[in-house]
């Protein structure tokens, strides 16, 4: 079986070399030396002013909302992983869905302002597949209406726009270091705070039960991560540049073979991309299901990432309409992409997709691009 994603693992001797020292120190958690080293190295690599390592990306979102004291309406995207919406609901806030840009699949800034009410306190937007939101437009809207901005940057490790780290935009950006991500610590995540030291100290308290030493200062949760996870991150970070280069090469092979058969989201000019995912958009859901089944029958896994459109979750009180997100969520499929994927498998996957699409229609598909 060819999986849709496969975690990179460093040479086991390198990991064991770090882990073996824990048997001497017995320092396994509670902001240990590996956690501190990883935070420092990630701040340097990602070019961010602040970074706190936490136990997962969802916890990072929860802490971001709590730290910014958001309590009412949050304008957000319907096209994201469910944790983006769940974090808003979990903090007893109200998600207000705004439809997406059909090119980038990120939240459409043209629709944000008309959704703002006197209860709106924040915008929580996702850099979908690592493709940047229109951060300049969103910043202008947020300043005009005095709103906080949180970016769910779970897919955006290492992405730059016009030479600047994408994580430097917004009040807070959050990352996921889950094992399926480009950079992983098995489980993990991070919070990047762009406001300043005071919020940084507050986030540290929220991450660790609300106390420092013996001083209980506020309500907090346990969002710390362990030395074992940090050690994996320290090992993996050494290989991240070659991982990205390898994924870029695989992406270029897919592009060369599939360009005339399917559509892809657009990456804006000036973006240094990280090749986090390989999503393709079909003409209709029937085509997607047909191709997905053909690949499955050939032991190739894919993922309908993201489906359904989050504004249609069954437990929401108000199911607002977001027609672009609802449409694309039915037609988009992520193909296998990981650093150790063989070129022959990329070619096999591409050929099976072309065969499946050729069988779906009597039209001459070659040379035809779908428009979202």
Supply the CATH superfamily name of the largest domain.
Type I PLP-dependent aspartate aminotransferase-like (Major domain)
Provide the structure class.
alpha/beta
Number of strands: 14
Total number of domains: 2
H and E order: HHHEHEHEHEHEEEEEHEEHHEEHHEH
Rg, alpha carbons: 21 Å
Classify the helix fraction into a percent range: 25-40%
Total helical elements: 13
Question: Proportion of β residues?
Answer: 5-15%
How is the CATH topology of the largest domain named? Aspartate Aminotransferase, domain 2
Strand order in the sheet with the most strands: 1-9-8-5-4-2-3
- Round the mean pLDDT to the nearest integer and report it: 95
Instruction: Quickly give the CATH architecture of the largest domain.
Output: 3-Layer(aba) Sandwich
- Distance between the terminal alpha carbons, to the nearest Å? 31 Å
Main CATH class of the largest domain: Alpha Beta
Q: Largest sheet, if any?
A: 7 strands, mixed
GO biological process, one term: polysaccharide biosynthetic process
Modified residues (N6-(pyridoxal phosphate)lysine): 181
Family: Belongs to the DegT/DnrJ/EryC1 family.
GO molecular function: pyridoxal phosphate binding; transaminase activity
List key phrases describing it.
372 residues, alpha/beta, Aspartate Aminotransferase, domain 2, Aspartate Aminotransferase, domain 1, 2 domains, 7-stranded mixed beta sheet, 3-stranded antiparallel beta sheet, 13 helices, 38% helix, 13% strand, globular, disordered C terminus
